[in-house]
Design goal:
This protein is α+β, with helices and mostly antiparallel strands and 186 residues long. The chain has one domain. 39% of the residues lie in helices and 14% in strands. The chain has 7 helices and 4 strands, in the order H-H-E-H-E-H-E-E-H-H-H. It has a 4-stranded mixed β-sheet.
């Protein structure tokens, strides 16, 4: 975390204000990939709804919830990440994806700290800056640039009925098919 603060101007203030949370899950070795994706998705939906609830509060723009998933790598978080980005962008949330051992560079070409664990990070969008992180997905960048959280049930349009965050894993096959259709249209 200390190494990452220099790359993220919001992480330091979030940490100083005790607004960065971490929840850790461990995947059983015998778990099936689809079950892992569904569970990761459901855990991240819970985190996203927590962030949404806190974001209107004072300093709510600094809230950051991280869902750590031990025992997995990038493949197990790719689809949940893609679905979450598309579901929550209109509500003004950013969803970051980081996997154990990921090597990447920052916008200035400096090497980023290598994550010791695989996790998804959810936080309110910073509309003037965050569209730059989405240059590979211009539609999502445009959505984030103008997003406002109106309290909508983000799962309702996909599932067709209201559902709780904890039940989200049950609907994972439907959500993944929806997310795949978005991927194909890019």
């Amino acid at each position: 975390m200390d190494e990452t603060v220099s790359f993220c101007p919001y992480l330091g203030p979030s940490l100083r204000n005790d607004l960065t949370g971490w929840t850790t899950y461990t995947v059983k070795p015998e778990a099936e990939p689809a079950d892992i994706e569904g569970a990761v998705f459901a855990a991240a939906v819970q985190a996203a709804e927590f962030v949404r609830a806190l974001s209107p509060w004072p300093r709510g723009h600094l809230v950051c919830e991280n869902v750590v998933v031990l025992g997995v790598g990038r493949p197990e978080i790719d689809w949940p990440h893609w679905a979450l980005k598309n579901l929550y962008a209109p509500a003004g949330l950013m969803v970051g994806k980081f996997w154990k051992g990921e090597e990447d560079t920052g916008r200035k070409g400096d090497p980023l700290p290598v994550p010791p664990v695989t996790f998804l990070s959810l936080r309110p969008a910073v509309r003037p800056r965050d569209p730059h992180f989405l240059d590979g997905t211009p539609d999502l960048a445009a959505t984030i640039a103008t997003a406002r959280d109106d309290g909508r049930d983000v799962l309702l349009p996909v599932i067709g009925k209201p559902t709780s965050a904890t039940a989200a894993a049950t609907y994972w096959p439907v959500i993944k098919a929806w997310a795949a259709s978005l991927q194909e249209s890019r």
